Predict the 3D structure of the following.
Amino acid sequence: MRDRRALVEWSLALLPVAGALLRLWQYARSGSFWLDEVWLATNVVERPWSELLGQPLAFHQGAPPAFLALSKLVAVLLAADDWALRLPPLVCGLATPVLGYFVARLVFRTTAARVALVGALAFSPALVYYASEFKQFSGDVLVTLALVALALRARSDGHGLAPLAVAGALAPWLSHAAPLVLFGLGAALVGEAARGGRRVERVRLLAVLGLVWSASCAALFAAAAGALARDEFMASFWSAGFAPLSGQLPAWLVESALGLTHLAFLHAGASGVDADPAWYGVPVVLLTAVVIVGLAGLGRCSRRLQVSVLLVLGATLCLSAARVYPLRGRLILFLVPLVHVAAASAVEWLARREGARRAAELLAAALVLGSLGVSLRSYPWPHAGMEGALRFLASRAEPGDGLVVDAWSAPALRFYAPRVGLPALRPTAPPIPDDADPAAFRGAVCRAARDRTWVLITRLDLHYEGLERLERDGLRLDGWSGQGTGLALVDLSAPAACVR
């Protein structure tokens, strides 16, 4: 019996190792930055420290100050390229299943539930992907788990509160989502203290804790997050993630719950704001039911954690209704470990019922293997091919060639051109507008006024038809295509090619 228990514990401990291998595989094959990464990297690499940390970021970007500072250190000490800048998210991603292992031991008593939580954190396709993307979202997940672990170990009589107080004061500078998590954990602790003995003394102690956290959050908002919250472009971009205060709210809540479950277990690649038909599939509906049942029963494992999760979800929903924080996409990746906890709680509930142990094991296996299957099918996920496109251009370009890019490619061109030996490469015409139809696309290309002109497109979804028509008219001489990126050399020397 002792040998079997040791074997089970070793198997559980190996899940983070397997998750690490998945993340390293994705990191090694991830390719060049995609648009959002390039925008953030340009801020980090080109700005001096004072502007990076003291002014709003360009290109409608936002990231916690500590993440920006760490990224700047990496760029200065190691290299200002995609491999180096993706290291901080990778480290966060590698640490996430490890920390999840300790949270599982704190919350659950059965092996099946522990396997469900650690396995879900190890193999979640979204968590695997964001460990290889140069954005702060992998850190959001790690911060959430760290705060949960410290809150579970803290006692309302003051024991264990010091580490939680320090971590809570630092967390908002590492994760923009941390204040939501701190609110849930802090309110749950205050509720416990108010119900127990020596309640006045305990509530006062926790009030001091809350003041420390509030001061940190207020300082962050004043320093950086406030400008991001007032960004009209971002508010418009994420508008589908804001709860509608109308009769559409019930349908929106159902859709958002399905989207969160899909993000936690089955979503591969970057996560945006728009609804996906896959959210309404049978697997997602069943998984959502499991999460809801598990959340309802989480109080049997940890009443503090159950109340905290409900409060975090409620606070996020309130900020969404206030159009401050969207309840969609990658911005709610920090909720994914809480969803995993709820699902593992459903496994724990089954495992404790007489005669349901096998059902609990099957449910745990389904949760873990379902996510693993999606990750194995989807990864390595290639990022945008800007660097590959520019290397191809460097090998084929001739003196006097023209260059036209779409509006989305300009920052990536500026970032990667010096790195592929084209430091002087500049477009010879204004950028192609996003709303250009094929005729306007042709006109924008012709403004390069060169017989041989390269056309570099990052948003193929916007300009595929324009590129296709150039090829259909026999103007395309050469080209390269990669993930989301297209490069074409066109011949504009024929009289019919352009009207100049």
Remarks:
- The mean pLDDT is 90.
- The two ends are 85 Å apart (CA to CA).
- The beta strands are 402-405, 452-457, 476-482, 485-491.
